[in-house]
Amino acid sequence: MKKVYLVLTATLLFFTGFRADDFKPYTEHIPGLQHGIDMVPIPAGEFVMGSPETEKDRKADEGPQHKVKIDAFWMAKYEISWELYETYFNKELEVADEKNTAEVKSRVDAVVRPTQPYVEMSFGQGKESGFPVCNVTQFAARSFCKWLYAKTGHFYRLPTEAEWEYAARAGSKTTFYFGDDASQLKDYAWFYDNSDGAYKKSGQKKPNAWGLYDMYGNVAEWTSDLYVEDFYGKPEATDNPYVKPSKHYPHVIRGGHWDDDADKLRSASRRTSTPDLKQRDPQIPKSDWWLTDAPFLGFRVIRPVKQPSKEEIDAYFARPPKDIP
Asked: What is the extent of the structural domain holding 161?
């Protein structure tokens, strides 16, 4: 066992600069903020992505099932909160911090922040401490990650679709990470049957085997990927698959939300973004920051163990071309 540990330690150090002992839960304390982000280590591994043809409520775009290899990363234990997100778009909420150096301030000042919304963006659901942010566009979620990177020097991003499903399953092969019986879902998620028509404070339901809360329900979550209906059948959908956005729509959304039926909360369930999510936005052209018709859509972040190069990071944060007016 000691020999295996030494090999693992050497491998992590060689490829990532991390020792095995460093790959553990941590809280990212963000300069200028009074709160941080709890991060959970997700080990590298292989899993079968998608759903079998025999799964109840299965959709055609969930197949064919295929083996996928995923590199190690950390994932936020909870969905990003209003408390944290509003500090991002309102710099007056930041506090003095000895780590908030001139260099950090210069990086942060270069990050574009959202404009003030026209309406109260939780639509009455509440923004108390611990409640998940909602009505956030893909662009806004990525910009938040860019701000985190500027603040901390650590590259945070949205999970890929494959990373999200791998983390949600936490080693399971069943419909849900706790099994196939949807009647148990009330113990693990907020959804149509128990939400009373609104999201709830994060972390009140049971986590999955890797300690992640609200991977099902509460608010649905953005992934980094552009949605491709038949991508699972393509040869590139094997090792750390990722469909880089070439346009604004559609992106993949995962996890289901507080107003969804149980079938939308399955580990393999996929849904997509559309321009209709901005339908009531009074701004012309529609805002890059707010989805006024998505009070059910938020996000959580991940941090890859192996930080990409600056060029790769810049490419991730680059905006895709607009494909709609």
From this structure: 26-317
